[in-house]
Design a protein that fits this description.
- 50% of the residues are buried.
- The strands form 3 sheets. An 8-stranded mixed sheet has the order 3-2-9-5-6-7-8-4, with helices on both faces. The chain has a 5-stranded mixed sheet with strand order 1-10-12-11-13, sandwiched between helices.
- The chain is elongated and about 80 Å long.
- The protein has 14 helices and 16 strands.
């Protein structure tokens, strides 16, 4: 027979046992909350975006700078303790801007602040010149008769609206991608676009246009908002405005781009992968701070924090820094997102979730989860964890998740979006003003907090997001 004191002690230990185990092995929710709070003071994201934009600067796809950025990023991931760090290269046709100029030659000569659209061809050494014909929208241009623009320069003047979610860009960008080809069909010798912008600054906004039969058919430029206003005012005064465009752009058909990959390996579900993506390349005009060094910093810092948790998550967190996102290429060229998928077709079923950060560093205000997830136990837990940092659940679906993870979404991988405040994003997007000073450190940290919360909770679970989507009620 045991002594009463021993019996009492045994009973106490039996009662405290689960609590003691819980203290030794905190729940996923507890760990996610701790990581969320730690992220608000973690320096990794700021150090990453600051060093990348300072050491490398602009990182055009296929350039030596993009390669240097990939090599630097791989070293950085290794130094931060990521596993299986490697660079995957793939072929592409690079576009190099070269010297360029846009100017009004009549009725009164004056320079224009403008940049050639990515992929657009060079002009003859003396440039191309023509009278400007204005169209308020792409649809209006498409309604013009064949041959009606012979020898002229078409210009789409659509004023992109300022929105928090960036939805104004989704409509306006069609003019940039399709405008040159539509103008060429009607005989135009050149194309101008009012920059897809909201800031009113005299910075033209770069961006890619679409290839047709392997090429962009005519020289094409984006004009800053004030310069576009100038052309509109002159036309409104009854003047015939003539513009000369000069470009020495070149194509490099045998260039190389790079995806950089690193992992925080899981434990008993390590073969199941959650992709945290962002793109490493940028336009050549600025240093690519908000687009998208900030995104690379956010996902890297979030995954690195997960590594610092008291225990490893069940699933693997895979950071993918994609190459060649910004450019439009011939259809036979694989960009970063498609290359990643092509190399992993056999294992795509083990990708349980994917998301990307590619909308600057503005605060995250809501989260869009895969179908069926928002009202699940996972979604309700996530809502509790996100509330203290000002993030709510969105009723809007995540769509394709973003340009780089869109191929994964098309292959059936569930995607999510952490929706950022983009009210001022298009003040700087694709301009020379996309520099480090536009990144707010506190807002950057809040992004990391939101990302690590979602990433950890999903990684340390057995939630089948595909099954949740299948069980979700139809929204049709």
């Amino acid at each position: 027979m045991k002594a009463p004191s021993i019996v009492f002690a045994s009973c106490v230990l039996a009662l405290l046992g689960p609590l003691a185990h819980s203290a030794a092995q905190p729940s996923a929710e507890t760990i996610a909350a701790t990581l969320r709070d730690k992220a608000l003071h973690d320096p990794v994201a700021w150090d990453f975006v600051s060093e990348l934009t300072t050491r490398i600067g602009p990182r055009p796809a296929g350039s030596a700078a993009e390669r240097a950025a990939a090599e630097w990023s791989a070293r950085k991931l290794e130094a931060l303790g990521f596993e299986n760090v490697h660079i995957e290269s793939f072929p592409m046709t690079a576009w190099v801007r070269g010297a360029e100029r846009a100017e009004i030659v009549a009725p009164s000569p004056q320079p224009l602040s403008a940049v050639s659209l990515g992929g657009a061809p060079a002009t003859a050494p003396g440039g191309v010149e023509g009278e400007v014909v204005l169209f308020s929208t792409l649809d209006e241009l498409m309604a013009a008769a064949p041959g009606s623009l012979a020898g002229k320069i078409a210009m789409v003047t659509f004023h992109m609206p300022r929105t928090q979610d960036g939805s104004g860009y989704g409509t306006a960008v069609l003019a940039r991608s399709g405008g040159p080809a539509e103008a060429a069909k009607r005989g135009a010798v050149g194309f101008l676009l009012r920059s897809l912008a909201t800031g009113g600054h005299r910075f033209p906004h770069a961006g890619a246009t679409r290839y047709v039969d392997g090429r962009v058919p005519i020289p094409a430029f984006a004009v800053s908002e004030p310069d576009a206003d100038q052309i509109e005012r002159l036309t409104g005064l009854g003047e015939k405005v003539r513009v000369r465009l000069t470009s020495a752009a070149t194509l490099v058909p045998n260039a190389t781009s790079y995806n950089v990959i690193g992992e925080i390996r899981g434990t008993d579900r390590a073969s199941e992968v959650i992709v945290l993506g962002a793109h490493l390349d940028s336009w050549d005009t600025g240093t690519g701070a908000i687009d998208d060094a900030a995104g690379c910093a956010i996902v890297t810092a979030a995954a690195r924090l997960a590594k610092e948790a008291p225990r490893k998550p069940q699933r693997t967190l895979r950071v993918v820094l994609y190459g060649s996102e910004e450019v439009s290429q011939p259809s036979d060229t694989l960009l970063g997102g498609r290359t990643y998928l092509e190399k992993r077709k056999a294992e795509i079923g083990s990708h349980v979730l994917a998301g990307e950060s590619d909308f600057g560093a503005g605060r995250v205000y809501s989260v869009s989860l895969p179908a069926g997830a928002a009202n699940s136990a996972f979604g309700r837990t996530l809502q509790r964890l996100m509330a203290p940092i000002g993030v709510i659940s969105s009723s809007q679906p995540p769509g394709n998740g973003g340009a780089d993870v869109a191929p994964l979404a098309a292959a059936g991988v569930p995607v999510f979006l952490l929706n950022q405040d983009g009210t001022h994003y298009f003040d700087y997007h694709h301009t020379a003003d996309d520099t480090l000073d536009k990144v707010n450190p506190e807002e950057l940290a809040q992004n990391v907090a939101a990302w690590v919360t979602l990433a950890w909770l999903a990684a340390d679970s057995d939630v089948d997001f595909r099954a949740l989507a299948g069980a979700a009620p139809s929204t049709r």
